[in-house]
From TrEMBL:
Organism: Streptomyces mesophilus
Gene Ontology biological process terms, A to Z: cellulose catabolic process
A Pfam family the protein falls into: Glyco_hydro_6
Protein name: Glucanase
Gene3D superfamilies xref list: 1, 4-beta cellobiohydrolase
Signal peptide span: 1-28
Catalytic residues of the enzyme: D133, D171, D322
Amino acid sequence: MTARRNARTIRRRSAIAAALGTALALTAACSGGAEDAGQASDAREAALVQSPQKPAGTPFWVDPNSPAAQQVKQWRQSGRASDAEVLRRIADQPFAVWPAGDEPGWQIRAARDGAAKTNSTMVLVAYNIPHRDCGQHSAGGAHSEAFYRQWIGAFADNIEDKKAIVVLEPDALPHVADGCTPAEYHEQRFRLISEAVARLKKQPNTKVYLDAGNPDWIRNPGDLAQPLWRSGIAQADGFALNVANFQPTAENIAYGRKLSALVGNKHFVIDTSRNGNGPLPGRGGEAWCNPPGRALGAAPTTKTGDKLADAFLWIKRPGESDGECRGGPPAGKWWPDYALGLARNTK
């Protein structure tokens, strides 16, 4: 962690294949021959589209085999029925899929096929930009421009003509605006994100939202306007706010309206997955990392009450760790105790 990582500018990202609850099987599949890997991938996809379900009032796909859903089943079997019932506040809701690794296709196919069974919209996060997260805890990403183009092409291809929302590259543009990403990478970043928008928009039923941080990070929305324009916001459907953060919905809406006026009146979506109690009071230390006492926010919906806010989404998967702080596991790992706390604190 560098000195510039603080509660305002850096948040953890789920950058692992836990996005679909069974992604740890990927390692085993990759270690065998091509035939074994294909069979393992088919098995994973088949498992992920079992038991289609969708809560009333949401158009988004619910993963029936998410870590939360698996935890509910385990607790019921082990006699923790009351905890299992509380955790259903997470398990029964739709949240985003973060395809990870060099081959995103199988995870998107699983979400695509599951969503098709309930005529739902899948929510996806593309998070593989080169020089990701300024080389910090969620560092990584594609090793070259050419590979990123190949990866985003596979990402888009596997959506096919199904309904999808794609949140494009969390942190990438805010890290340009706050100076965390070195200047020598800025032009490459604008170029690749702009190309990614164009590629994803070739899919007929895909909406694309560029990540634009949160109102407690880049406090002057004008600092994001030029990076968004340079990165293809004109061709995108809008921008995303509060990804993996805790800022109140009303503050995000106010900020989103100001930013929208600077980028052609584009619409936006807001991550409400963990903002039910707002952020942890105080701005020092690791207020962003697994803060105690937080709660789930508004359930995913397109009924936001604001004409510019297209949807409230659970982009960060509630219950997955922000990082190894406050007793938590590595970033992106399922943490049942923290998940239960979020659910219990929810009014």
